[in-house]
Structure to design on (99 residues):
């Protein structure tokens, strides 16, 4: 899935808004997703080598927010099920780890 410059900017803002809303730190998210704080920051900025990474982070943040009774900021492009995208590694998304 290729995003335009505008869509990329909006998607980064949405991911970052949900991260901020979660109240979690880079370190907490990194520990939960088996990666580094630097990798979390890169995913939040859509600087990824694996296109599944934003979906994994999105699903994690949504679960964290819903567990706290909060409503995630909606996503304009990363919406619906990632399972509808044949080109994504579904096993990686289901595992939910960024390692």
């Amino acid at each position: 899935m290729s995003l335009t410059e505008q869509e990329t900017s909006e998607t980064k803002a949405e991911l970052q808004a949900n991260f901020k809303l979660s109240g979690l730190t880079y370190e907490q998210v990194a520990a939960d997703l088996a990666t580094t704080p630097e990798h979390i920051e890169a995913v939040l900025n859509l600087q990824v080598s694996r296109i599944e990474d934003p979906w994994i982070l999105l699903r994690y943040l949504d679960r964290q927010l819903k567990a706290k009774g909060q409503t995630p900021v909606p996503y304009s492009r990363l919406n619906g099920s990632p399972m509808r995208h044949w080109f994504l590694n579904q096993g990686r998304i289901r595992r939910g780890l960024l390692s």
User: Anything to note?
Assistant: The two ends are 21 Å apart (CA to CA). The helical segments are 5-22, 26-32, 37-44, 53-67, 90-95.
